[in-house]
Amino acid sequence: MSGQEPEDFGAEMVSEKSRMMPGLPPYDMDERLLPGEPRSPCCCLAWTLLIGTINSLLFLLNLLLMFVIFTVVLLPTIVVVYFGFQCHSQVLHSSARYCKSILDDNSSSALIILGFVIMSPLLVVAMAIYCSLARRLQLLVCFQPYSLALYKGGRWCHCREGALCCARGCSTQLRAWV
Hints:
- By secondary structure, the protein is mainly α.
- The chain has a domain at 41-139.
- It has helices at residues 6-20, 41-73, 75-87, 97-101, 105-137, 147-150.
- Helix 2 (41-73) crosses helix 5 (105-137) and helix 3 packs antiparallel against helix 5 (105-137).
- The two termini are 40 Å apart.
- The model is unreliable at 166-170 (pLDDT under 50).
């Protein structure tokens, strides 16, 4: 090949191709390519506290929703394991009437094992319910980026109609390149 090494030839081809490839498109075509005007330090601190408070409240709302769903779905497991541990002679050995007349150590052990066996499928069901509800309510889209605190002119929400976090006048379409 007339004095050129194969490695040099491949490097030349790659560099020519990389010059011809355009840059990545902006995330949202409607937004400006450059960030807005920076905020003053005091204003930036106030906006940071506001956005942090909103994001913390949304996080707590998500945790509360998850706690309620998991508690309701896992209630059979909780009850079965509770009675199994309460009536077993090696654990709590309650003096309740049903522990003396109905449940002995073998049946208490069976209740404990049954409770832990049915826990796995119920955890999957609870997580599926939470994920579908969070997707339907669009709770995870409601978190606001901290860039709103740094620059003026940002939009507050990027969610679709019907979501809990949207105010009137927000964009109804999400655009992203992948």
